Amino acid sequence: PNHIGERLMPTPVLVVIHERSCFSSCKKWTDSIATFLPLLHDNANLILQIRNKSASAESDFVSLEDKLPSHPRILLNIPSLQQTNYRRHRTENEIGSSGISVSVHSVEMAVKFREQYQFFQFGPIYQPISKAGVGLGLSAIDPFVANRLKVVAVGGITLSNLHQILEKGAFGVGVIGSILNSKKPIETTIK
Fold first, then answer.
1. Which residues pair with 95 in a beta bridge?
2. Does residue 76 contact residue 67 with C-beta atoms inside 8 Å?
């Protein structure tokens, strides 16, 4: 088991990255987040990361906050939000700030901050589904595993390729596109 906050988590973990830019309105985003909340109760390996890097991120969060329970496996990735009682996932630009996890673009950065964060998100491993980009390839995970870093691979993760990542020794996978673009996102998450 692995700790996140004060709870024990089995590996591998699934980080559902609930990206605001994937929704046409704040209401659709907050309504969709609400449908994922019950999954936290029954799925101990699930982390819900709420991400919003838009200009309206703070006001969007105000409309979400009343609906959002305090839960150790809800992580906020909203860089413009200064004060919150929720646990944080940090961007590489925020590295060094308090949080549970951080996105990195190199193993060297992860090694430097290994004592501060519980896990590191890294990618894109495959071509991203939710935005433009080129995948780094499966072997990009190897230096993280060799350095015994808990890495959550992101970028182009689907049901058909996530097992390759886990077999490499990753702590887990982070998913945006293949879940949020699914016709049945809850069922896809549970699979």
1. 97
2. no
User: Is 8 a residue whose pLDDT tops 70?
Assistant: no
Question: Is the separation of the CB atoms in 14 and 173 below 8 Å?
Answer: yes
Q: CB-based burial of residue 11 (10 Å sphere; 0-12 exposed, 13-18 middle, 19+ buried)?
A: middle
pLDDT in tens, 143-187: 999 999 999 999 999 989 999 999 999 999 999 888 888 888 888
Distance between CA atoms of residues 174 and 123, nearest Å? 9
DSSP H helices, 16-94, are 26-42, 57-65
Longest dimension (CA), the chain: 43
pTM: 0.90
Pairing of strands 7-9, 2-4: antiparallel
Tokens of 55: 């200009």
